[in-house]
Amino acid sequence: MCDFFSFVTEPETGNNSGKRFYFDWKYRKKDLEISSLLGNSYHHDYHSSICKYYKLNEDICNKYEFDPFEKVFHVDRINSEVDDSIQAEDWVRNLDFTKIIQPLIIKNFINPLRDLPENKEYINDDIILLLQNWSFAQNTIRRSVDHYLIKEVGSPVKDALYDHLRGSLFSQIWNLISLRMGKQDILWDSILNSIIAYMESFFIIPHHVSIESLNKLWNMGFIPSFDGLFWRLHSSYDADVVFKIKESDLSNFRIK
C-alpha cells in the first residue's frame, strides 16, 4: 500500500547512496495543474511512480512511508542488501513538509468535546450567525470539499487526512453525541460534515465562509449537530446541548 508520504532510496549505487527520492511540492503542484486541465488524477506516492520518474531500478530500491499526521514511520520493503531504514526514518522525521505540500499545516487533531474547556458562555448573536453560515452548507459540503482539496493538494494527501479524521476523531465525537441524542442517520451525516469541513483547516488555502464558520465554532469548543428539525451546539465531555434552535428559525435569524 502506497500512502502519503512515500519515498525510496537506492543505497547500493554509489551516485545515489544517501539520497532520498520523492515528489516535492514543485513537481506535485505542476502535475496537479496539468491533471486539473486533463480531468484526471495522478498518485504522487506510488513507489513505482517515483522509481520510474527518477529512472531507478525498483528491484534494488528500499521503499518507505511516513504518516506526518500520526508521526508513524513504516518500512514498506527492503530490496537492497543495504538496510538504511534507521537513516531514512531520522531524515523523514526532520523533514519540512511544506516542501512536500506547501499549504499543509501539521498540527494535532482537536476534539472540541474532550480537548477544549467546556464552553458555558452565553450564546450570543455572533455564535448563532456562525451556526447559520455553517447550516447553509450541509447539502454540498462533502462534494465541494472533496473536489477542492483534490484540486489544491491531490488525492493522496486528502485521503490520508480523511482516513485519520474519519477513523479516530469522528468515532470519538459520534460516540459521545449519539449517546446523548440516539443514533440517527441525519445526525450522523451532520457530524461527518463537520469533520470534512475541519479537514480544510489543515491547509493554508482560501476557505468558503461556511468552512470558516465551522472552524471558528470548533475552536471555541462547539460541535454542531442537526436531526432534521433542530440545530444544536454541543460542548463538554458529555456532549451537553448548550444551544438549540429550530431549522426554520435559524435560517431566518437576523441581528436586530
Explain this structure.
45% of the residues lie in helices and 13% in strands. The strands form 2 sheets. Strands 1-2-3 form a 3-stranded antiparallel beta sheet. It has a 3-stranded antiparallel beta sheet with strand order 4-5-6. The model has no long low-confidence stretch (mean pLDDT 89). It is α+β, with helices and mostly antiparallel strands and 256 residues long. Helix 6 runs antiparallel to helix 7 and helix 7 (155-181) runs antiparallel to helix 8 (185-199). It contains 10 helices and 6 strands. A hairpin with a 4-residue loop joins strand 5 (230-235) and strand 6. The longest helix has 27 residues, at 155-181. The protein folds into 2 domains: 6-99, no CATH class; 112-251, no CATH class.
Range of strand content:
5-15%
Q: What's the helical proportion of residues?
A: 40-55%
Count of strand segments: 6
pLDDT averaged residue by residue: 89
Rg of Cα set? 22 Å
The ordered string of helix (H) and strand (E) elements is: EHHEEHHHHHHHEEEH
Uncertain runs: none
Shape: elongated
Question: Total helix count?
Answer: 10
Coarse structural class: alpha+beta
Q: Tell me the major beta sheet.
A: 3 strands, antiparallel
Summarize, please:
With 256 residues, the chain is an alpha+beta fold.
Which key features would you list for this structure?
3-stranded antiparallel β-sheet; 2 domains; 6 strands; alpha+beta
Summarize the helices and strands and which ones pair or pack.
Blueprint: E1 6-9, H1 25-38, H2 47-53, E2 62-67, E3 72-77, H3 85-93, H4 112-115, H5 125-135, H6 141-153, H7 155-181, H8 185-199, H9 209-219, E4 223-226, E5 230-235, E6 240-246, H10 247-251
Antiparallel strand pairs: 1-2, 2-3, 4-5, 5-6
